[in-house]
Amino acid sequence: MARPAAALTDGTTAEEERLPFFLAADDVKAAAEAWYRWLKKEKRFALHTLRAYGQDLAGFLAFLAEHLGNAATLDDLRGLRQSDFRAYLSRRRNDGLAATSLARSLSAVRSFFRRLQRDGLVDNAAANLIRTPKRPHSLPKPLSVAAAEQMIETVDSADAAPWLQARDTAILTLLWGAGLRLGEALGLNGDQSPQGDSLTVTGKGNKQRIVPILPVVRDAIATYVKLCPWPIAAGTPLFYGARGKRLDPAIVQKAMRDARRALGLPETATPHALRHSFATHLLAAGGDLRTIQELLGHASLATTQRYTEVDAEALLNVYKNAHPRARAGV
């Protein structure tokens, strides 16, 4: 029988949370683990983001061990200069890391140093003076209304138990109909099963927002709840996996992957694309940006404004395909 992993102070285990900060002195390792738990418990990072940040900081500490010739101590961190952070980014760039991943890595390191300063352990502002690598400008890739409907119909007719079909249908309908992130949907508990016209959602940074619930969304969830063999109540998950545990995001991602292959849709047809579709379809129907920002839970309006570019691009494509002179090329 495998030996249980040692429990951490918050009840999780080091193996479960993958705390990979072994290439650092004990004082830095303790600070890194405290920062990681803070991201999890206080900032409520999504699990994949949490693990990515942990791996990013671990990579930075591993770089420092080689760069400095020893496992970094808090004193070493106090003495780091801008050139040290630039050397780290240069190494990561040479390793083939994309600009988006470089930006996230620097964000993780900055977050750690801000936490060190807040705890009175290290005061070094050099990390904040490094220019963030430019991210490529990319637009959200929503599904068309028809494609979104086909996606939901396909998972509803998948070769699975009726309650699993109903579950996947309810989740995809919720993502498209209310603009939720997948993690937000799967984080709902049984007592949050929508009964009325709205739902309170806890999003990034533990921020709550109220989203309207369409009858079709409410009905899809009610159908699933009726068929689900597991108890759905306060303190239990709303969406269960086949073994009676809270549903893993990978299961929903696989359901959409199978559906998009069956429909011949591009790889961008992911659960998050349904959230993009929610915003884009609202905008196309005359929704204003401020309202869409609130519904999506975006901290910045600039994030929501990307959808105006998607809408303009769609209009341009319609024009090119429909206008007689555009078709004639004159």
Automatic annotation (TrEMBL):
UniProt-annotated location(s): Cytoplasm
Function recorded in the entry: Site-specific tyrosine recombinase, which acts by catalyzing the cutting and rejoining of the recombining DNA molecules. The XerC-XerD complex is essential to convert dimers of the bacterial chromosome into monomers to permit their segregation at cell division. It also contributes to the segregational stability of plasmids.
Domain Core-binding (CB), first and last residues per copy: 26-117
UniProt-listed Gene3D superfamilies: 1.10.150.130, Intergrase catalytic core
InterPro entries from the UniProt entry: CB (IPR044068), DNA_brk_join_enz (IPR011010), Integrase-like_cat_sf (IPR013762), Integrase_catalytic (IPR002104), Integrase_recombinase_N (IPR010998), Integrase_SAM-like_N (IPR004107), Tyrosine_recombinase_XerC/XerD (IPR023009), Tyrosine_recombinase_XerCD (IPR050090)
UniProt-recorded name of the protein: Tyrosine recombinase XerC
Keyword tags: Cell cycle, Cell division, Chromosome partition, Cytoplasm, DNA integration, DNA recombination, DNA-binding
Active-site positions on this chain: 181, 204, 272, 275, 298, 307 (o-(3'-phospho-dna)-tyrosine intermediate)
Domain of life according to the entry: Bacteria
Organism, scientific name: Ferrovibrio xuzhouensis
HAMAP family for this protein: Recomb_XerC_XerD
Annotated ranges, domain Tyr recombinase: 138-320
Family: Belongs to the 'phage' integrase family. XerC subfamily.
Keyword Cell cycle annotated: yes
SUPFAM superfamilies: DNA breaking-rejoining enzymes
Subunit structure, as described in the record: Forms a cyclic heterotetrameric complex composed of two molecules of XerC and two molecules of XerD.
